[in-house]
Design goal:
The protein has about 150 residues and is mostly helical. It folds into two domains: about 70 residues, no CATH class; about 55 residues, no CATH class. The chain has a two-stranded antiparallel ribbon. The radius of gyration is 29 Å and the shape is rod-shaped.
Length: about 150
């Protein structure tokens, strides 16, 4: 939203709000009141809908955490047991270690992706809360000036 568009369409409308002049205010008065409330709400909340605060989810540490090594160790142990039954403990352990390492790493990647998604959703919720606080402040101001606002 830019200020010229907001003024042309009405600040309240650009915020997704509907304003009714309960005291028969004319259009010029309503525009002036909306501008005053725009500034007041910005001062009260610290949020500027023309330049919204960018909230970014924390980045997940994607460095190795030993999951591949642990998976490899578990796989090697399982592979050695299977290899012993088949008659080649070393080959079974090597195959098991490789499969275990891949599974361990895949598990870490999936876990990281889920955590990043949760962080991003949290950031989006904070952004929405900032916007909603601004709209409440703007609405309170407009109601104080004799408008019904929803």
């Amino acid at each position: 939203m830019n200020i010229s568009t907001a003024q042309d369409n009405g600040i309240a409308k650009s915020l997704g709000l509907y304003v009714f002049p309960s005291k028969d205010q004319d259009k010029a008065t309503q525009e002036a009141d909306e501008m005053a409330c725009f500034k007041w709400a910005k001062e009260q909340t610290g949020y500027d809908p023309l330049n919204p605060t960018q909230v970014v989810g924390a980045t997940v540490d994607k460095s190795a955490n030993g999951s591949a090594v642990r998976g490899s160790a578990r796989g090697a142990a399982g592979g050695a047991a299977i290899g012993a039954i088949a008659g080649d403990t070393g080959k079974g352990a090597a195959i098991g270690a490789t499969v275990g390492a891949v599974r361990g790493r895949r598990s870490k990647v999936v876990g990281d992706a889920k955590q990043q998604q949760a962080n991003d959703q949290g950031a989006a919720a904070v952004s929405k809360e900032l916007e909603n606080d601004y709209k409440k402040a703007f609405s309170v101001c407009m109601e104080g000036k004799g408008y019904t606002i929803k």
